[in-house]
């Protein structure tokens, strides 16, 4: 199989790229983005990596060297980093859709499956701007002719980032101390390590995600013209543990 990943320099994307390179089932891994991932020369599977440099607004103009079986999208920013709500949408919505369209253009003979990170409580009807954008991108992805769409909805991410996110850093420290409160109805909000999200993405990609309980059947449904499976925060905490 061949894989393409965008957002490989971010928290989740970095760990996912390492997973993809180390997995012998992937012959080629395309890392698409504005800057090359920083990897040690001895990184397992690094010889499979091809970096495709591009600006996000030029995604649909790219020429890729191989067909794509699995496409992984780990794009994500903050309004503070983006500078405005408009620029936030360009990254967390427009670029995500453009990446999906690129993957479809270069899909293998068996089609392409997309694995995308959104957020807990993503909903296109939400009154919260962040959740609304994440929900809208989920909805719009479901309109595309993908073989299958996997949506990962993490809570607050834990782990060191290349770029500072002050509020998230404060949140990480607080929730590390108060981790015991995330039980019962609050379990869905339990912070999750970026590496664990990445591990889930690879596990789902390889195993096609076997249902854990009958209750999970509600998370596998047809939306518009594509089969969609949602892996929520609570599921990610248990799937690969």
- What would you report as the Rg, rounded to the nearest angstrom? 17 Å
CATH class (first level) name: Alpha Beta
Task: Please estimate the helix content.
Answer: 25-40%
Distance between the termini: 26 Å
State the gist of this model.
This protein is an alpha/beta fold and 241 residues long. It contains seven helices and ten strands.
Layout of helices and strands:
Elements: E1 2-6, H1 11-22, E2 28-33, E3 49-53, E4 70-73, H2 79-82, H3 85-105, E5 113-117, H4 129-141, E6 148-153, E7 157-158, H5 166-177, E8 192-193, H6 194-207, E9 220-223, E10 226-232, H7 233-239
Parallel strand pairs: 1-2, 1-4, 2-3, 4-5, 5-6, 6-10, 7-8
Antiparallel strand pairs: 9-10
Structure characterization notes:
With 241 residues, the chain is α/β, with parallel strands linked by helices. The chain has one domain (2-239): Rossmann fold. It is 34% helix and 19% strand. The chain is built from 7 helices and 10 strands. The chain has helices at residues 11-22, 79-82, 85-105, 129-141, 166-177, 194-207, 233-239, and strands at residues 2-6, 28-33, 49-53, 70-73, 113-117, 148-153, 157-158, 192-193, 220-223, 226-232. The strands form 2 sheets. It has an 8-stranded mixed beta sheet, sandwiched between helices. Strands 7-8 form a two-stranded parallel sheet. Strand 9 and strand 10 (226-232) form a beta hairpin. Helix 1 packs across helix 6. The longest helix is centred in the middle third of the chain and has 21 residues, at 85-105. The radius of gyration is 17 Å and the shape is globular. Mean pLDDT is 88; it is low at 209-218.
